[in-house]
Amino acid sequence: MLISLINLSYLIGAVAFVWGLRLLSSPDTARRGNILASIGMGIAILATLVAPISGGDNNYLWILIGLVVGGGIGWVAAKRIAMTAMPQMVSVFNGLGGACATVLALAELFKYYDGTMTMGLGQLGIVLFTLLIGAVSFTGSMLAFGKLDGRIKDKHVILPGHTIINIILLVVVLALAVWLMIQGSAAGTGLMVVFLVASLLYGFSFVAPIGGADMPVVISLLNSFTGLSAAAAGLIYGNQIMLVGGILVGAAGTILTVLMCDAMNRSLLNVIIGGFGSAGGGSKGESGDQVAKEATVTDASIQLFYANSVMFVPGYGLAVAQAQKALKELDDLLEGNNVDVKYAIHPVAGRMPGHMNVLLAEADVPYPKLLDLEDANAALKDTDTVVIVGANDVVNPAALDDPGSPIYGMPVLEVWNAKNIIVLKRSMSPGYAGIQNPLFFHEKNRMLFGDAKDSIQKLVQEVKNM
Amino acid sequence: MLISLINLSYLIGAVAFVWGLRLLSSPDTARRGNILASIGMGIAILATLVAPISGGDNNYLWILIGLVVGGGIGWVAAKRIAMTAMPQMVSVFNGLGGACATVLALAELFKYYDGTMTMGLGQLGIVLFTLLIGAVSFTGSMLAFGKLDGRIKDKHVILPGHTIINIILLVVVLALAVWLMIQGSAAGTGLMVVFLVASLLYGFSFVAPIGGADMPVVISLLNSFTGLSAAAAGLIYGNQIMLVGGILVGAAGTILTVLMCDAMNRSLLNVIIGGFGSAGGGSKGESGDQVAKEATVTDASIQLFYANSVMFVPGYGLAVAQAQKALKELDDLLEGNNVDVKYAIHPVAGRMPGHMNVLLAEADVPYPKLLDLEDANAALKDTDTVVIVGANDVVNPAALDDPGSPIYGMPVLEVWNAKNIIVLKRSMSPGYAGIQNPLFFHEKNRMLFGDAKDSIQKLVQEVKNM
Amino acid sequence: MRIGVLKEQSDKRVAIVPAVAKKLADLGATLQIESGAGANAGYDNNAYDGANIIDRAAVLQRSDVLISINPLPEDELKSLQKNTLLISEFKPFFDKDVSERLKTQGLRAISMDMIPRTTLAQSMDVLSSMASIAGYKAVLTAANILPRYFPMMITAAGSIKPSKVLILGAGVAGLQAIATAKRLGAQVEAFDTRTAAKQEVESLGARFVEVAGAKEDTGAGGYAVEQDEDFIKRQREEVQKRAMNADVIITTAQVRGRKAPILVPSSTVEKMKPGSVIVDLAASTGGNCELTQDRQTIQHKGVFIVGNSALADEMPEDASTLYANNLLNFLKLIIKEGELNLDFENEIVQSAFITH
Amino acid sequence: MRIGVLKEQSDKRVAIVPAVAKKLADLGATLQIESGAGANAGYDNNAYDGANIIDRAAVLQRSDVLISINPLPEDELKSLQKNTLLISEFKPFFDKDVSERLKTQGLRAISMDMIPRTTLAQSMDVLSSMASIAGYKAVLTAANILPRYFPMMITAAGSIKPSKVLILGAGVAGLQAIATAKRLGAQVEAFDTRTAAKQEVESLGARFVEVAGAKEDTGAGGYAVEQDEDFIKRQREEVQKRAMNADVIITTAQVRGRKAPILVPSSTVEKMKPGSVIVDLAASTGGNCELTQDRQTIQHKGVFIVGNSALADEMPEDASTLYANNLLNFLKLIIKEGELNLDFENEIVQSAFITH
Amino acid sequence: MDTVLQFFNEQLIMIYLLIFTIILGFEVISKVPTVLHTPLMSGANAVSGVVIIGAILLIRQADSGDVLQLGLGTLGVILGMTNVIGGFAVTDRMLEMFKKKKK
Amino acid sequence: MDTVLQFFNEQLIMIYLLIFTIILGFEVISKVPTVLHTPLMSGANAVSGVVIIGAILLIRQADSGDVLQLGLGTLGVILGMTNVIGGFAVTDRMLEMFKKKKK
Ligand SMILES: NC(=O)c1ccc[n+]([C@@H]2O[C@H](COP(=O)([O-])OP(=O)(O)OC[C@H]3O[C@@H](n4cnc5c(N)ncnc54)[C@H](OP(=O)(O)O)[C@@H]3O)[C@@H](O)[C@H]2O)c1
Ligand SMILES: NC(=O)c1ccc[n+]([C@@H]2O[C@H](COP(=O)([O-])OP(=O)(O)OC[C@H]3O[C@@H](n4cnc5c(N)ncnc54)[C@H](OP(=O)(O)O)[C@@H]3O)[C@@H](O)[C@H]2O)c1
Ligand SMILES: NC(=O)c1ccc[n+]([C@@H]2O[C@H](COP(=O)([O-])OP(=O)(O)OC[C@H]3O[C@@H](n4cnc5c(N)ncnc54)[C@H](O)[C@@H]3O)[C@@H](O)[C@H]2O)c1
Ligand SMILES: NC(=O)c1ccc[n+]([C@@H]2O[C@H](COP(=O)([O-])OP(=O)(O)OC[C@H]3O[C@@H](n4cnc5c(N)ncnc54)[C@H](O)[C@@H]3O)[C@@H](O)[C@H]2O)c1
Q1: How far is the alpha carbon of F5 from chain B, nearest alpha carbon, in Å?
Q2: Which of A17-31, A420-434, B259-273, B359-373 comes out lowest in average pLDDT?
Q3: I need a labelling partner for A129 at 20 to 30 A (CA). Which of B103, E57, E97, F39 fits?
Q4: Is F101 domain-assigned?
């Protein structure tokens, strides 16, 4: 009877995981999906606590301590972390999950080597696999965290010929695993520790050469590793929900990793052995020693979709890209989602007086949406997101604060008073006046490189998906 | 060894089914999906033919006869059938599948009642379930076929108070099943035949009140029934692939049924007890005693997407709906798919000379795409699909062939020379001249009712999905 | 059958252009063109090859059918042969006894402005083609006179607001004016008493000024019916409100056979900004603006009032082409195998024939 | 400090509009306006309240700074006090000794047309604001003269093809002309020798006519450099080809300090369709068309040639507003606390000062 | 009750499989564009012909003298095979029109 | 080889389940919009914390005197619980911003 209940609970938990992930993949339902999955997890944990068990002293106190301490740490960390640091946090959590699997494997191995337990070859293999994968996930995730957080720079950890070192390390780890299997219980804890250290080292080394910008992909990959280690641990304990949940995460994580690579227009292999690439081929956002931060289409579209007010600042680039109709489409879409959209028209934007007026009239933007310099500067203070579409000189803060600048004294659109800035242009090249624009390096600013029409069309697509 | 191979084959077959259906749900891969599923089926059948079997004489000759006859009929029927009659054909095939399940159940019951075999209560239940569901699927599908094919009219088969009759029939069938289970092997073949007949009757009666237009939904529902009967038969034979395949079709068929209802903006319940509704509520397409045929957005978009040449005929309705920009978007989309798009401008379209020119210029349609009356009439002969966007008088064939018409003698766009015609307008109301338009009842024509801008935006969405 | 085409006396257009002359010849007619008839429209005598180019007197005397846009001066009528068929715009709704006068002279006459405004007859409808040109030209004229920009301009030397254009009467000319003003970037409002007009105005993306209580026009063949006093008063108030803000007013409101309604009284004009422009296309029937002087452009307290209702004349080449095509479509109806063939059962022929 | 504003002698514009007059007063200046100065631009004397409205002689004698758009006649210069600062468009590139002449009279002068064409100075750049108006007006003028429609029209009376408009010189005026012609529905092509022009033309959705081998203009401060013989020849051929099909040609090509290049020779004009229109905005520096007569509209073999390079004058209200704003922005640079404060370190002041 | 519980515990993995298959069926179909509704229905119908496996097993398990069973089995094979072959063939024909160009 | 085959036949349903779970995992994720990549990764990560179940079982099965096992087990529970709670909580925070308005 109880056993049936436990089994049923696990079944419900497993279905909750599947359905939760499913819901997580659509913006409308994502939040519900997460809650569903967490309920599934709660049910599974509860069931495990009350499940009838043969032999063993229950030791509920120890469990309680573990749950409270772990839960507390997790909760506080999750609540305290800044919005922008969330990916790092996920990486840490993932590493801990991997570590947990490794600990379980160690516990099994200790019992095995001190003779309190026997294992078949298959089972030993599974345990070693759990240890290896969990350990790789642990150190890999921790390094990913360090890189994302900016504590560890690529140059600190990339060795020359890193790919070769990785291959050697991998061979060593695998050889150790085989050796441990051949030796069986004769191997002893010493060799086990060597294996553990090698695994941890490999995890670190595996992530080291991968460029900082690729970290989200790596975290996703390591997450699927953690899933596999959980599944393997499920095999050790003959527990279905660990198996199902682990496999699910393994599969989902893998496909997610591939999707993320796709979204970056790269292959997974390219990311993993990207160590070489990431050092060379300077990013588009670099200019001199300053680096402008890039936005992804996704970031930008979120900033648009969830804004209350958006200001477009069109410039000559809008005309060159002939993006006025696409811009109007984006406008309509945002207005349809209760975003207040306005256009800030700088008097000298474009290449002839009234250039922007001509374009926007062509796209049927109603006149009341167009603000001139003064009105726009007043409105910018209360604007959530400014999108600068192929403008440059007209938003150059040097006009106000750099007496050496050739445009010093010209009134410009003070876009930096808004909460977020997104600049759509193709490169870091200057505009008509031929001068560099410090705005691009402003902390509020993110560059979205590419032809303005292209970029806007992508934004339209993305916003439609939300 | 052989058993493993058989099992592996079944596993591969099952995965082929799943993956095949998956591929079937995207236009790019649908064909491959169908082929994959059919290969899976082939593997499963082969495996079943060579599977080791305990007791039984194999009787390969009988099997061969069955395979050849059935395969032959299926092949010829599928190849001969006209494109337009395919849904009927599917319905027939589906009914045969259900009949097959029923036959299997009967075979088991014969063995059971003549004492050559015993069955547990659970198994008996499963067999009866198989028989019932298979039979319902069989007669239901056959009636659906008759309705779709126009051989059977709704009025022939709908009885007054049909819903009540159906409920009574259902109760009778279920009661018989319970009775058969209580009686066990004592029941005998007589009662079994009664049960069979009642089941067949219920299938017929179930479908009878449902309107002819809803048949595709019903077929999909019956298809999921057939899936369930196959799964139940799988339980009888302890065969995994029948079980997996059957359940898969059951689940997929159910969700597909719901999706189809959604696409028609109705609930499944509404469709099933729709017998009352289907008679009343005259359609938008009726006028006098003639009935214009309606197109769905899907039909229309297929006709656009797979055309080589499309001609838009804009009229005053385009202007009223202010749909010119949406139309241009559709144009761009089609051009991007190698469809040759032109616009036929009738001299008096709209409400002022050059009305259409003004609108289309606003939407940036290049001048060379605009054909005047003469050029358009020449081009129409080689046009695959004509879309009439809120025009009416200017495409009225009465101007050419009805001397009594007030516009007799006016040159019009001879759209009926094209292969397909789609008319976008809101109702059957006449245009400026206030006269009925026989074009709407032309056999090549389909009406797509609704505001032109709305309809075009829907077409854009649908074409984007292809 | 000899068709004579006359040179207009005070109009740059010509009733028949060379391309149409050729097609008429194909119908079996002999063309006799007054020398220099097309000169002002860009067609010199050489362009009409195949036709006889002769002097005016000869054309007048030797034609079975005589075509001109504007009716002949009365004194020339005497020189015509009896039974000659005249085709012109006789405007019988205003010149009420023209039909009688011609009859007493023993002439037959077709008035092109009497062709019914039906879908079938639209290809012969010179009122439509000319009104369309007038609407287009009215906006260009206004834009040319207005001392301000039409479109909005945000420039380094200041921001210019878009001009406000008010169109009164949204018939063929009014609609074309709306379209043209919108193209130039102005903010356009329009008004008309016909109920269908609202939708038509909006179908061009402009705003419709609503005044409640207009009389319905069903049954009046597309022409506006006269509105009652109270209505006209309220409407004037509304117009006054808009006019004070308008930079350009283009009026096209006509009621067939009557003096055009006054929609813009002097008091309104005086409240407009100096430099603003009124183009009154109803000038020839009295004008929609109280101050309009037919065929003159005047300035009243800084406001320009253009009283030119014959704007089509200022685009003579295309105007002539369209006019000639309309004529051709009509002539096809009454010429069979080179001879006149008048079918008075035909609604179009019947309406157009004012004297027979 | 007293600022005098003069009425223009043959120009409807006025250099300072009432709104700007107020702002100048706020800067501490005393405004003295010649009576009737703004009348033609729509501003009567009352509009300038707060300023002294006096007669011309008084303005000339009593001002520290004298503002007009066009330079004063030579004879009036004598009546001025020594050291008076004149602000006008002196065009020193053409009137090469103007600077000397003024100096000998003991006067100081700022030439508004010498303000550098930089981003910073654009708010004072009268050449830009006036060129922009000229470009807009050029198209309206052409559309008004052309006996044909600009947009395409498929009507019951026949189909009208869209007019072809060719713009030569895609500077500020040329670009505005492109935009306006496109708005009206014409098919627009444009040509310019600057390499950046192609992108600029296309940024307005028009087609660029390409002639290979133009000299680069980098370093000439945005002004065009003169091109060599062979190039000009090939370009003429290309233009000739396009011109034969064009209904309207608008030319704006200027080279600073030189006669305008001839881009449309008589032979080309003669191949154009009768009724076609050439608007030559370079007329005052000799014209881009060989036949252009400055300040006159002539007809050559049926082709209209408009030689008016002062089209801004025909939109006096907005033109004056923009001009005055440009002046205001410049004056803000040289007036500190009500007094002149000339900083010759400043590039703009330095370039604009032609006599000091 | 007890037998149900016992059955549940014994067939646990089977039940997992069933539920997952159902979810998979839902999932695979849920985003299909309307254009594909009919071909998909047709394809699913062909798959439901898998019931033919039962008919084959029935014949193979039957005595060669048991004409009733053999007859029923053969009827089943014919019915099932018609469904399978006809179903796949007709689906393929429907899908032919999708073979043209792609963006 | 034989053991492998035997294992295969015995664990057949389990293998079905595994394969179907993998397909399901792929299927559930494959159409996710890029906006959701990070939250989804985070949610999946929380689910992978299911490994905590092993740690709980480890403790419960251990002798109350076996400090090594109990220590490892408790460490495991702490690690796993951090992953689970932190994972779900952080995902929820990420998803908060999706709660606003919808079209
Ligand atoms: N308004 C006038 O009358 C007039 C006349 C002449 C000159 N100007 C001068 O022009 C300038 C106008 O300022 P502005 O901010 O409008 O323009 P801007 O400063 O010239 O900058 C335009 C920017 O657009 C980007 N761009 C070009 N093509 C693009 C495309 N297809 N997609 C996306 N971005 C594109 C360019 O960057 P990438 O190359 O990196 O993409 C460039 O930095 C001022 O300096 C003004 O003085 C104005
Ligand atoms: N060109 C001119 O100069 C001129 C001037 C005056 C009159 N006319 C006359 O106007 C007519 C023009 O012919 P036409 O074919 O262009 O127009 P039409 O014959 O007047 O027909 C227009 C059709 O558009 C449909 N429609 C209206 N609003 C719509 C919307 N929002 N969405 C979709 N459909 C809509 C209407 O049907 P539903 O209500 O069912 O939607 C109507 O039947 C001719 O009879 C012509 O003689 C022309
Ligand atoms: N069937 C066809 O193909 C065809 C062709 C051309 C015109 N028409 C129709 O004929 C009718 C007349 O067109 P038109 O351009 O020659 O008209 P018009 O020149 O006679 O009058 C112009 C417009 O002024 C309006 N008007 C009259 N009194 C007014 C008032 N007091 N205030 C405001 N507006 C007032 C009229 O309603 C009309 O729309 C229109 O309905 C038009 O659609 C039909
Ligand atoms: N920085 C600013 O804000 C600003 C403001 C206004 C103008 N400008 C720049 O100043 C420059 C001059 O503008 P403008 O309108 O006063 O020019 P302009 O009036 O001096 O000349 C008009 C155009 O004619 C072109 N041209 C000269 N010779 C030609 C030939 N043989 N054939 C064809 N075209 C020829 C020139 O290249 C120029 O584009 C432009 O580059 C413009 O972008 C800059």
Answers
A1: 6
A2: B259-273
A3: F39
A4: no
pLDDT band at B282 (very low <50, low <70, confident <90, very high): very low
* Number of other CB atoms surrounding residue B303 within 10 Å: 21
Look over chain D and give the mean of its residue pLDDT values, rounded to a whole number. 91
Q: Phi and psi dihedrals of A295, rounded to 5?
A: -105, 150
H helix and E strand count, chain A = 19, 8
- Alpha carbon of C322 to ligand 2 centroid (Å): 23
Q: For residue range B54-107, what is the model confidence (pLDDT) as tens digits?
A: 888 889 999 999 999 999 999 999 998 887 788 889 999 999 999 999 999 999
Question: In sequence order, what are the residues at sequence separation of 6 or more whose Cβ sits closer than 8 angstroms to the Cβ of residue A413?
Answer: A313, A344, A346, A373, A376, A377, A380, A391, A394, A395
Note the pLDDT tens digit of each residue in D240-266.
899 889 999 999 998 888 899 999 999
Going from the C-alpha of B117 to that of each of A111, A184, A385, B112, B128, the distances in angstroms are: 53, 52, 77, 5, 15
Q: Verify whether the Cβ–Cβ distance A18 to E23 is below 8 Å.
A: yes
Task: Name the domain count of chain E.
Answer: 2
| A325: contact with B, CB 8 A cutoff | yes
Residue F87 placed within a domain = yes
How many whole angstroms separate alpha carbon C277 and alpha carbon C243?
Answer: 11
Whole-angstrom distance, CA of residue D88 vs CA of residue D226: 27
Reduced to 3 states (helix: H, G, I; strand: E, B; else coil), residue C209 is coil
| CB within 8 Å: E27 and A22 | yes
Predicted confidence band of residue D226 (pLDDT cuts 50, 70, 90) = low
CA B77 to chain centre: 18
Whether residue A299 lies in the annotated active site: no
pLDDT digits (tens, 9 = 90+) for B351-387: 999 999 999 999 999 999 999 999 999 999 999 999 9
pLDDT digits (tens, 9 = 90+) for C67-103: 999 999 989 998 899 899 999 999 998 888 999 999 9
| Ligand 4, atom 4, residue with closest C-alpha | D117
Whether B277 shows a pLDDT value over 50: the answer reads: no
- Domain of E9 in residue numbering reads as 1-31
Which ligand ends up closest to the CA of B430?
Answer: 2
Domains and CATH numbers, chain D: 2-118+316-352 (3.40.50.720), 131-313 (3.40.50.720)
Alpha-carbon torsion, ordered B355, B360, B364, B365, to 10 deg: -130
A-chain residues near B364 (CB < 8 A): 325, 362
To test the contact with chain F by mutation, choose from B7, B12, B23, B243 the residue with the greatest count of F C-beta atoms within 10 A, namely: B7
Chain F contact for B14 (CB, 8 A cutoff): yes
Distance CA D210, CA D189 (A): 10
Number of domains in chain B: 3
pLDDT of residue B154: 74
Report chain E's terminal Cα–Cα distance, integer Å.
Answer: 58
Q: Are C180 and C206 in contact (CB under 8 A)?
A: no
Report whether residue C355 contacts ligand 3, using a CB cutoff of 6 Å: no
F18 shares its domain with F54 = no
Res. C178 pLDDT band, cuts 50 70 90: very high
How many residues are listed for chain E in this entry? 103
Distance B432 CA to ligand 3 centre (A): 14
Residues E26 and E40 in one domain: no
Mutate: best of F20, F41, F93, partner A, most A CBs <10 A = F41
Round the CA-based radius of gyration of chain E to a whole number and report it: 19
- DSSP line for D45-108: GGGSTTSEEE-HHHHHHH-SEEE-SSPPPHHHHTTSPTTPEEEE---TTTSTTHHHHHHHTT-E
- Confidence at residue C238, expressed as pLDDT on a 0 to 100 scale: 82
ipTM of the complex: 0.77
Q: State which residue of chain D sits closest to A398, comparing Cα positions.
A: D120
**C117 assigned to active site:** yes
CA dihedral for A8, A14, A16, A19, sign (positive or negative) = negative
